[in-house]
């Protein structure tokens, strides 16, 4: 194996060679903005996806946890990749390959049936575990305030307004469920009109409504019929007004600050638009 493997650590290379000896790299799917290498390989007549995290990576651990504890409702139907190998300390995992093309940028991104299926899939994921957490809101507020204290391009007056708003929020106990964390068309595949799910790198226990946040900013705003179809598939709407507003503000701050740090100007601009829209709401 040669192409695309130079970014792997010696430990990751050793593990990969032991799991898939003689495998061949077919394509490099790495995003480029973060230190995660994503490769498509063939081994023994089958295709696999390899993900290798960099030194500061926190996504591989979360992805492995999701595969081991929460993915069954999807993998049992062939609607998500199955974990083949994984090592948390080495920040390395191997999954089966799912056929299909990304919904993002395809004609399926504007079809209601796609969003109805996505809603159905998400409902299955959320229904697995329910946890009550007294400290979630306080933790998330602290993260948002820390992001505002870091490097970003949010205006000083806006920062002060956001700080004051967050400080005034209540911190009630909330119900947490397994969430995907990046639920949107760039993490959905479609094959023969069937939607499947990829990338569990942001999976964690959160309020169910947080998995609506990225769809609400772009897809639901672009076409309300897509939101209707999604809710029809999901079966209900978990977004309570006050909590949903807090979710949106924290998501907007996270988007603008994280995208600035990794140099994704398009995503950063989206974060600034989110902040502006919330201020006008």
TrEMBL record:
Domain of life: Bacteria
Domain Aminoglycoside phosphotransferase: 83-244
Pfam families assigned: APH (PF01636)
Signal peptide extent: none
InterPro entries: Aminoglycoside_PTrfase, Kinase-like_dom_sf
Name of the protein in its database record: Aminoglycoside phosphotransferase domain-containing protein
Organism of derivation: Catellatospora citrea
Classification lineage: Bacteria, Bacillati, Actinomycetota, Actinomycetes, Micromonosporales
């Amino acid at each position: 194996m040669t192409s695309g493997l130079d970014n792997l650590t010696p430990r990751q290379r050793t593990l990969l060679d032991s799991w898939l000896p003689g495998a061949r790299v077919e394509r490099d799917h790495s995003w480029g903005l973060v230190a995660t290498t994503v490769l498509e390989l063939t081994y023994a007549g089958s295709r696999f996806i390899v993900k290798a995290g960099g030194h500061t990576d926190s996504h591989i651990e979360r992805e492995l946890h999701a595969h081991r504890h929460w993915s069954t409702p999807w993998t049992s139907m062939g609607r998500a990749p199955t974990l083949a190998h994984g090592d948390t300390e080495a920040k390395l995992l191997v999954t089966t390959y799912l056929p299909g093309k990304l919904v993002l940028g395809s004609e399926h991104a504007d079809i209601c049936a796609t969003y109805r299926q996505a809603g159905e899939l998400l409902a299955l994921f959320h229904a697995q575990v329910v946890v009550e957490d007294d400290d979630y809101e306080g933790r998330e507020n602290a993260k948002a305030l820390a992001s505002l204290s870091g490097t970003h391009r949010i205006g000083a007056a806006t920062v002060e307004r956001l700080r004051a708003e967050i400080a005034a929020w209540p911190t009630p106990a909330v119900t947490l469920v397994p969430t995907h964390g990046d639920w949107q068309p760039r993490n959905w595949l479609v094959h023969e009109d069937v939607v499947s799910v990829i990338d569990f790198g942001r999976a964690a226990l959160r309020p169910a409504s947080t998995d609506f946040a990225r769809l609400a900013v772009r897809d639901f705003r672009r076409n309300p019929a897509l939101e209707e179809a999604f809710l029809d598939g999901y079966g209900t709407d978990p977004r309570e007004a006050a909590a949903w507003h807090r979710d949106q503000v924290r998501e907007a701050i996270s988007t603008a600050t994280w995208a600035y740090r990794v140099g994704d100007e398009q995503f950063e601009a989206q974060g600034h638009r989110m902040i502006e829209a919330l201020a006008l709401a």
